[in-house]
Amino acid sequence: MIDSRLSNLYEAYRLEHAFSGNPETLYDSMQYIMDLGGKRIRPLLVLMAAESAGGSAEEALPLAHAVEIFHNFSLVHDDIMDQALVRRGQPTVHERWNTPTAILAGDNMLVLAYESWNRYSGAGKLQAFEAFTATAKAVCEGQQKDMDFATQTQVGIPDYLGMIEQKTAVLLGCALQMGALSAGLELEESRLYYQLGCSVGLSFQMIDDHLDSFGTQAQTGKRLGGDIAEGKKTWLYLRSAQISDEVNRLFAELEEEDRIQAVRSLWVKQGLDLGLMELAESYHQEAQSHLAELQAKGRDVQALNALCEWLLARQH
Questions:
Q1: What's the CA gap between 43 and 38, in Å, rounded?
Q2: CB atoms within 10 A of CB 137
Q3: What number is the average pLDDT over the span 81-108?
């Protein structure tokens, strides 16, 4: 479950630091993506880790905001690359404005993410900067791999999982690590929070992949089967190709809705809808082991555990 106290704390801070400036087109488009909603998981992880490690959520707010700005920057650029029309049930930034504006909006958000980090004045500032920068680099590398995989014929499941770790999981790990560093933890122990976040992130992405193929647009706010339509080599695709060559034939011969319906039916027949949830559960169990290790060190993990359980069971 989401901690409403910390959620409200961050939301007040986010609104207090809303984007504005000249030209209005640029800043309106930036604020638009920030206002579209979402679960705000990443900033919450910063605040939860700060309190878990004995620090102050209030002091960690600039770090939390930096993570959320960076995340939304990546979404703006991802949507351009994927030619996505909808994000969180609303037009994407490039669709509502135009592609050049969306590119500049993302660029400026990356700058302002670092500006938010610089607003932070508590413990572990330099270490938080190094973690944030390493993560930003990894996310960009992961996104490029995601695009490359669409045109490569030889992509293995380990390749895909490594890409997902860079593109998605490391940012959740960074969020938890920065929160822990803000509480004054040494770098070595803060890495336990990072490992926890990566496990949570991998489970999170597996459920996202499941919802993309087997959920509904009402649940996700995005087109159902978007990964199938775009030809992305997700775990579902790669595992299906290990079972038979049928998925390759469907991807080659069919397009759009015909492909989506046929591939979804194949994956259900192959039991991959259940297999993907089993994989998500395995990463969830990894997260549980990291939580137990932190608890053994005297850290308060109750709220983090509740969030992990909620993420595993989520339907959107």
A1: 11
A2: 12
A3: 93
pLDDT number for residue 219 = 62
> Each residue of 258-316: pLDDT tens digit?
999 999 999 999 999 999 999 999 999 999 999 999 999 999 999 999 988 887 776 55
What gap in Å lies between CA 136 and CA 310, rounded to an integer? 26
d(CA 305, CA 303): 5
Q: Give the other-Cβ count within 10 Å of 216's Cβ.
A: 10
Residue 19, Cβ neighbours under 10 Å: how many?
19
Q: CA nearest 291: which of 174, 161, 200? A: 200
Determine the average pLDDT of the residues in 35-45: 91
Which residue type occupies 58?
A: E
User: Among positive and negative, which fits the CA dihedral 184, 185, 188, 191?
Assistant: negative
Cβ neighbours of residue 238 closer than 8 Å, sequence gap 6 or more: 155, 156, 157, 160
CA-nearest of 197, 160, 210 to 301 is: 197
**Burial class of 273 by CB neighbour count within 10 A (0 to 12, 13 to 18, 19+):** middle
Tokens matching residue 58:
């209030």
3-state secondary structure of 1: coil
- Give the pLDDT mean for 187-213: 93
> How confident is the model at residue 307, as a pLDDT?
87
- Taking CA atoms, 217 is separated from 163, 165, 229, 251, in Å, by 25, 25, 14, 22
Q: Strand ranges (DSSP E) for the chain?
A: 86-87, 90-91
